[in-house]
TrEMBL record:
It comes from the Eukaryota. This is Beta-lactamase-related domain-containing protein. Residues 1-256 form the Beta-lactamase-related domain. Residues 274-286 have a biased composition (Basic and acidic residues). Transmembrane segments: none annotated. InterPro entries: Beta-lactam-related (IPR001466), Beta-lactam/transpept-like (IPR012338), Diverse_Enzym_Activities (IPR050789). Signal peptide: none annotated. Residues 274-300 are annotated as: Disordered.
């Protein structure tokens, strides 16, 4: 298994069952989720509270496939996070802060919002729908009010010490989610537009690393037999995990999660942050390119 396998979710690691809100019983709906359910339960209870413990538990399970032979979205980034901890000798959250957040200038980024910043916290909503009447409404999932949010330090719903600052993804219901202000996100995206150099002039990523995000790796090697592997325009996933930048479908041009698009001719950034509930309609990428929402940047 290589670091590239972990980065591309071709390592053979999977995920256990998840829940939208904390405290909901975990139900395994597939063989993969059954295999990983015990690990997920230990994550939810706080028994697994470090990436090291997670990796020990993962080492006791068989891989879902030979590394590099297939794509499975799973705990690859969490394992990669522990590799970083071992190489650099620091906890992952400190590595993220010293090597990414501070150089880029992302001063608001945190795993739990302090009480003083509750008014700035955006709610986490789900679109609900009554099948009989067709009525639709929004339900806030992180807490009835900002002060009750699971993302607020000291609230009853906060995951607190049970959460681990993981490298990527969620541990169960809202665990390990890093929160950002719009300013933080724009600074990070501007760094990408500048070829890996922050607005402060500090180089965060090599230009070759940024260029790799703009490379369609599936043109070099296919991990799945079908033309559109899981993750490419998928209703369930919606990003391009193997190629990083998707060339086809409703999310064409997106570096990640269909929300960050670089339009090569104009060097403008398009940014949108909704979680898709109903994928019935998609905007054409060329139309979006004419409606820039972010910063103008010079090519790196």
């Amino acid at each position: 298994m290589t670091l590239r396998h972990l980065l591309m979710h071709t390592s053979g690691f999977g995920y256990g069952p998840g829940a939208i809100t904390p405290g909901v019983p975990l139900v395994a709906r597939s063989d993969q989720e059954k295999l990983y359910k015990d690990i997920t339960v230990k994550q939810e209870s706080g028994e697994i509270d470090t990436l090291e413990k997670l990796c020990v538990e993962l080492s006791r399970l068989p891989l879902l496939h030979q590394p590099g032979s297939d794509y499975t979205y799973g705990m690859s980034f969490d394992v990669l996070g522990h590799v970083m901890e071992l190489v650099l000798g620091e906890p992952l959250h400190q590595i993220i802060r010293s090597r990414v957040l501070a150089p880029v200038g992302m001063r608001d980024a945190c795993f739990l919002v302090p009480q003083s910043k509750i008014p700035t916290l955006a709610g986490y909503f789900r679109l609900m729908r009554d099948e009989a009447s067709g009525e639709r409404w929004l339900e806030r999932l992180d807490g009835a009010h900002g002060r009750d949010s699971m993302y607020v330090k000291g609230s009853k719903a906060a995951y607190g010490s049970k959460g681990v600052p993981a490298a990527g993804g969620l541990w169960g219901a809202g665990r390990s989610t890093m929160l950002f202000s719009l300013r933080d996100v724009l600074l990070f995206c501007q760094m990408l537009l500048n070829g890996g150099r922050a607005v402060s002039g500090h180089r965060v990523l090599k230009e070759s690393t940024v260029q790799s995000l703009l490379t369609n790796w599936l043109r070099l090697k296919r991990a799945c037999k079908q033309p559109s592997p899981p993750g490419w325009g998928s209703e369930d996933v919606g990003w391009s995990p193997l190629g990083n930048i998707e060339r086809y479908g409703p999310h064409a041009g997106a570096l990640y999660m269909g929300g960050c698009t670089v339009e090569a001719r104009r060097h403008e950034l398009l940014l949108a942050g909704p979680a898709k509930e109903d994928g019935g309609g998609h905007h054409d990428g060329d139309l979006l390119a004419g409606q820039p929402l972010g910063l103008e940047g010079k090519p790196g």
